[in-house]
Each structure stands twice: as structure tokens, then as C-alpha cells.
Specification:
By secondary structure, this protein is an alpha/beta fold. It is built from ten helices and 14 strands. The longest helix has 20 residues, at about 300-320.
């Protein structure tokens, strides 16, 4: 484990509990912080990640350092022969992300990115039901990710830090690519970057995405609505609940018939029973399965790179006050 901030300590806790992992060391530039994390995980502490890599020669490394250090630390880990799970965003720039994806391919090592919402049980169940066609054609994805300002964030704004979660989930659920974006952004409490974004996204299958993300709301809200022909799914990331609000007019009718003759009407609402699990544990189990060559659905380096690319396009749109084309 490299980096023992908030997420790093959570990784240490879960890795210590996993039977398939042997946590051989933790590293942090703050030697005292590394020592505290090591004590919690009953392992060894290092003040230098290079010393950890040289002495322990780990099969796999989890990296949770500040974003502006991702590029250098991931390259060091890959060069040492380790598979890597790096916290999102994959890197600070698109060029750095491309470099990391290429380096992992050359080293023939797993490179996964910690877009943890992909492993949320509500999202996994939503993906299953969308794939089975329960909603029919999807019209819109609407994500709200709101909350107070985290003092730990200094090197990136809310788009790269938070909106990347929902960009990745939308791409995962839709299987479509994003062709253009438009964003309005504001900076109110962050010293250098935006802390509010309202964004519009167009997918190549015609669906529309709406992003509302900020660090200015005094309570956490993490909700995704997916609207389509047969109704609307509502997934709550925090409670891991999934609801389906049915369009009662859709029963036994095609969308063309509904649109022409009946319109949309309110039907029953169903709350699905979902086995709740800690997404971080699911993420780490999938990563370790991939490292050991077992079938596993992970967020790849390429996935992380695409989420970063779209996030940077949203930042550009907000700064330049124009639509940004992301794909021909």
C-alpha cells in the first residue's frame, strides 16, 4: 500500500481482512502516518515507496497518493514488476494517463483504476436489469453527487475528483461513448479549481447525461436516475438501494404506440432487495482476481483514461463557455 491518507487507510483495513492478500508493507512520505497504518494492518512501514518496492518486491500495489504523484509512483511500481490498482483519477493529465496505459501494456501487468462506484451493489444490479432490457431504450442518465468540501482535496477540482465517478458509471451502464459535453462551472471555496459543475453530456446512441456535482452542499447526496421507455430506475449509492418507477402505459405496448396514443403515466414503484456489500472490498477482490489470472470485471486503465478525458473536456467547456466535441 502506497499512500496512507483517508482512502489509503481504508485500503489497509480491507486488505488486512482479505484471505487472498498478504499485506507486506505500507509506505507514506509521512513516516508517522505510515507507522500508524502499518500498525493497523500488522505489517511493515516505509517512508519511501521506492524502498518498499525494492525490499518487498510485491506482486501487486495499491496506490492512493495525491493525483499529481500518480504518474511517477505508478511507473515505479510497474517497473518493479507489480500489478497496480491506482485511485482515481488515473493521472493529472491525459498525456500521463496515456503513458501509464502504455507502460502497463509493455510490462504485461494489470492496471486498474479505483472508480469504486462501479462495484456498488446497486449499480451492478442496475447494469444487470438494463442489459436484460427491463427499461427498454434509455433516454437520460441524471447523476447528483453533492456534499461538503473535503479539506484533503487541493490538486484537482470537483469535476476530476467527483464527476469522474458518474462519467465512468454512465459509460459502463450505457456501453456508449460520449460525443460532446457542455458545462457551467463555479469556484466558491476551492482556492484554485472549480467546486461546482452542472454538465450536459451527449452519447453516441442518442441518450443524454446530466451531471450535478458540487462541494457546496452541507449534506451528502449520491443518486443516479436512469429514464427510459418503460419508466425510471433510481439508484442511491449511499444506501445501495435500487428503485423502479414504472411507466404504466408501457405494459403490452411499443414506445411508438405509447408516444402516439397514450403518453407516459405513473405506475407502481418497486424497491429491489439487494445484498449490500462494501464496494471497496468488492473492488479489491476483483483486482486480486485479475492479478491471479481469474476472470474479473475491473475498471481498466483505458476506462480510467476515458473518464479523465471527458472530465477534462467538461473543465475546458466551463472555462471557455462553449460546447466541447469529444468524439467525431
Amino acid at each position: 500500500m502506497i499512500g496512507t491518507g483517508v482512502m489509503g487507510r481504508n485500503h489497509v483495513r480491507v486488505l488486512h481482512e482479505l484471505a487472498q492478500a498478504d499485506l507486506v508493507g505500507v509506505a507514506d512520505a509521512d513516516r508517522a502516518a505510515a507507522g500508524r497504518a502499518a500498525a493497523a494492518g500488522t505489517t511493515r512501514a516505509y517512508a519511501s515507496h521506492t524502498e518498499l518496492l525494492e525490499r518487498e518486491r510485491p506482486d501487486a500495489v495499491v496506490i492512493a497518493v495525491p493525483t499529481n504523484q500518480h504518474h511517477a509512483v505508478v511507473l515505479d511500481a510497474l517497473a518493479a514488476g507489480a500489478h497496480v490498482l491506482v485511485e482515481k483519477p488515473i493521472a493529472g493529465t491525459l498525456a500521463e494517463a496515456d503513458d501509464l496505459v502504455a507502460a502497463a501494456a509493455r510490462a504485461q501487468r494489470v492496471l486498474s483504476v479505483g472508480h469504486i462506484e462501479r462495484y456498488n451493489p446497486a449499480v451492478l444490479e442496475l447494469k444487470r436489469r438494463l442489459t436484460e432490457g427491463q427499461l427498454g431504450r434509455v433516454f437520460q442518465y441524471h447523476a447528483r453527487r453533492l456534499g461538503p468540501f473535503p479539506q484533503r482535496i487541493r490538486d484537482v477540482g470537483v469535476v476530476v475528483d467527483l464527476a469522474t465517478h458518474d462519467l465512468d458509471v454512465m459509460r459502463y451502464l450505457s456501453g456508449a461513448e460520449i460525443v460532446r459535453v457542455y458545462a457551467e462551472t463555479r469556484r466558491e471555496v476551492h482556492t484554485t479549481n472549480e467546486d461546482l459543475v452542472s454538465g450536459l453530456i451527449r452519447f453516441d446512441d442518442g441518450a443524454v447525461g446530466v451531471l450535478q456535482t458540487n462541494w457546496l452542499t452541507p449534506t451528502k447526496i449520491r443518486v443516479l436516475n436512469v429514464t427510459g421507455e418503460r419508466g425510471m430506475f433510481r439508484a442511491d449509492y449511499l444506501t445501495q438501494d435500487l428503485f423502479f418507477h414504472e411507466n404504466s402505459a408501457s405494459e403490452g405496448a411499443s414506445w411508438q404506440q405509447i408516444a402516439m396514443l397514450r403518453g407516459v403515466s405513473e405506475g407502481p414503484m418497486v424497491m429491489y432487495a439487494i445484498q449490500k456489500r462494501e464496494p471497496l472490498r468488492v473492488e479489491l477482490e476483483a483486482f486480486l482476481d485479475a492479478v491471479e489470472g481469474r476472470p474479473a470485471e475491473i475498471v481498466t486503465g483505458a476506462d480510467g483514461r476515458e473518464a479523465l478525458r471527458i472530465a477534462l473536456a467538461l473543465v475546458e467547456s466551463g472555462q471557455q463557455e462553449r460546447v466541447v466535441i469529444t468524439r467525431d
